[in-house]
Amino acid sequence: MADTAGIFSECAIAFVPSASLPPKLISSLQAILTEHGATAVDYRRDGSLPIERVTHIISNTIDFPQYIESQAFMIPVVSTQWITVSISRRRQAQVRPFSPDPRMIFSEVMVTCADIPPMDKESILGATMALGGQESKDAGKLTTHICALSMDHPKVVSALEKNWKGKIVLPHWFDDCFKLGKRIDEGPYLLPEPEILKKGPDEDLDIPSNNNLVGASSANPEFISLSDGNSARPPVTVFQDKKILLGADLKITGRLENALKDIIIYGGGRLVQDVDDCDTLICQYRDGEQYVRASQSCKEVANLSWLYFLIAHNEWTSPLHRLLHYPIPKNGIPGFKDMRITVSNYGGEARIYLENLIKACGAEFTKTMKADNTHLITARNSSEKCKAAPEWGITVVNHLWIEESYAKCEIQPVNVKKYNHFPIRTNLGEIIGQTTFNESRLRDLFYPGGEETMSPRAKRKRKILEAAEDNAYSHGPMEGVVIGEVAQGESDAMQEDNSEEDDIPSAVSKKSRPSRALATPKRVRPADAGKENETPTSVSTGGRSAKTKAMDRLSLIAPDIALYEKEKKRNTKPGTPFGGKHAAKLTEENVNNKKKSASHKDGDDDEDRPAKKSRPSLPGVEMRIILTGFTRWVGSQIKEDQDRRKLRDLGIQIVQEGQPCDYLAAPHVVRTVKFLCALARGPTVISSTFIEKTLETGQLQDVEDFILKDAEAESKYDVNLEKSVARAKAHRGKLLRSIPIYCTDKIKNGPESYRAIAEANGAMFMIYRARSGTTIKPTTAEQDGFAPPEPVYLLSGTTSEEKQLWKRFKEMAINGHMEPRVVSPDWLLDVAMAQQVRFDKKFLLEAE
Fold first, then answer.
1. Cα gap 422→34, rounded to integer Å
2. I need a surface site. Which of 37, 257, 302, 372 has the fewest CB within 10 A?
3. What is the CATH number of the domain that holds 781?
4. Where is the BRCT domain (predicted)?
5. Which alpha helices (DSSP H) does 268-421 contain, by range?
6. What is the pTM of this model?
């Protein structure tokens, strides 16, 4: 048996948390990878991934901010299934079949063919593997599909005898998927009773639901408050540290603007008034100075629909991944103006989406079909409209035509095969909403040029986008896809370890940089990888040349990075308010104030009227700080009020517990409720000496000189504070998402303090009294898909009254196919402090 101890020994692996990859699963997978030789790469202080130190990124989605950067570096992004398959094979699996990119429609499909003619078999397997699939010789445990014409083939019979769990499909399924460029449901193609052979195309078929359109069916949705009036809205942490600009063309009411402002600020973000200051522009049209400037500066640009989607789901998504999350063209798409388009066989959100998409293109949408209609968009080629359309000279197409015309910003020819393909027992509404934008196409049409006015940061982002474009397939069903590659002989620049700020490897100053073995593992293809499912030579060669070209281009950015870092330190570093742009603003304000003051003194029109003394305006809030363990104000409310006013005059606001903050100030590391709840938001943790020194001198200090360091406490609690802050920024208050935590009513210090810590980290917190209403629904292992039981926690003391609850709690958990863990409250404090879901048996409370 092959040794599996070091199969990931050459890998430096980073994880991207998401709804489908919560921190608790990340923690267990990291432990498995480390056991098999991998190096876990942690987040930077700002919560981002140090791409230059990573060989693989584990993510179940491509919806994360650094995905484009990973494409530029050709870092493989793979799903968690890659880990499982690699371990089961006792060697690293190929990365292509495990891409979470939805354009790889056969990702995680492993197929074996039975009674298929050789030519058909070859074409099916070739196309399947090109789009992320794999071939297996026989139907093993990892095989997901058998492609067959009947149930009589020995391969099928043998698989069924072994209680194989996959799907047996007709080759027609692969053929229809290839023609559409999308993966449709296998249901109508499943043997032994495939619908496509048993039912006709005109027989009734249910209209499918589609999650791709939830919150994305309109570019101008009506805003709906998420608060039910009885409970406070949890903070929308996706806005943490973000600077949002609401564009001038939105024309929203003052009431709605205030509501959005409250949500963004409560989530830790800020509203700004200038394009240069923002991270994200929310606007309605692809038009105007704000749109062009923001787009050329590579800032995020989206519409209100995208903003509402983030508020509703509290998950980041790229506005380019859903067509109606991006601003619409002000005058539509050229050529659509005189079209009259109707739809058929779509329902619910899909019908609303198509209506809005047609209007956004500039065409007229009609509810009914008449002779003057030009196009019919249908999900099936079977309805009264579909039969009448050819007779009336109306063009019949599926929704892919209108989607791709909108995404490519030009009318697509209607005679392309995929626009006219209608599988007989499939409603194409199931694949609607999967088309995405190509940023380079938008740039060419709506915001070309601008290089001469770009900031160093914008130039850096532009180089990353261009490198990602060069690495991607430029046409065909895989257009826009980048397959990361781990190969021998990578560019030396890719192996350089850079400072925290330098996200892109540079070819300069190589000798001056110290190398760190763990941070910069060599990227090599494992010697025992074998040739099973090997990437085709042509693809590998293209990827390698693209990578070399990308690295050559990326190495040119070094001067831009240096200038950007210099500018960033001058302009944005808290504690240096008199540098760069901020100084210019303050100078301008002072000049204006002096002019106003002089005009009041001269007072030509109102000589006899005494000038009304204007109230000095406070400077903007530059730093939001939560203080804990601060003894300066103990016993002196007057002194506290005076000091708070002094700090506010310097742009520092001391905020209360539960409010958004940029900094957490404490004399040392403490495990108080206030400290742990604030830490969950990922603020920079500084020494409260910063406040003392600022008050003593009357001037803002350089906050970087006051980063809290407490080696004794870190050793005592087994944490690294810098890593805890970085993890908190990445998790955005969702460290304990979906983890149920119960607590006894009689626990020492009361349950409410533990509730605050648990809920600040996204846990489901409940008081356990062994009564109805606090039970876990009974399930079996089979009902849970034979998945291992998830842990459920009970925070408890050791009083006799609390011990009586333990047996009932364990029975409830076991009946619900969960693993009961009765723990001391220290477990929750330990997890919240480390910002890592970890467990040690020392926290377990055992009954005597």
1. 48
2. 372
3. 3.40.50.10190
4. 3-100, 101-191, 336-408, 793-845
5. 289-296, 304-313, 349-361, 384-392, 399-408
6. 0.82
